Description:
It contains no helices and eleven strands. The strands form three sheets. A six-stranded antiparallel beta sheet has the order 2-9-6-7-5-4, with no helix packed on it. Helices cover 0% and strands 49% of the residues. The chain is an all-beta fold. A hairpin with a 2-residue loop joins strand 6 (78-84) and strand 7. The chain has one domain (10-163). The mean pLDDT is 91. The chain has strands spanning 10-12, 25-31, 39-50, 55-61, 65-71, 78-84, 87-91, 103-114, 118-124, 129-131, 153-163.
Amino acid sequence: MPENPKPGADGISARMTDDPKTNDKFTDVKTFGGEAGKRYKVTLRVRGVVEPMMYKDGQQFGERFYIGGVPNNKTYNIYQLSVSSPAQHFFFNRDDKVGHRIFTIDYTATVEIDGGATLTLHGDGQNGHMITNFAKLVVADVAPAPKPFNGQFIQLDVVDVTEVK
């Protein structure tokens, strides 16, 4: 972390590659537990330091959580969770406008997931650049807190699972 980072600085992503098809993207795939044939309400705690992204054709819940729809800009970071069953996807850094700024997120969201479903956490920087953590924002209890992380991140924690009856 620079001692005095430049406000609005546009940093090169650590995930930048020479291949535009894979540049500045990540995907992590997991299989949800539970019993096949049963549906569960899963409460996620969503935390991180992110840049704003606009989405459309879906539904906003709270300030930052967005269900369904598509990205509505071609240059800012996308943070998305896709669920195979019931088929749905969610975005975590929704904002009314994009810009060279960052903010912390710390909220809960409840989603429905069928036992054995595939979960895909996907990030796409879209342009190989990110807005650095120039404000030295920290999310309590997320490493490297109490020090700031030099960049952006998102962390999803499962805080509750109940079967849908």
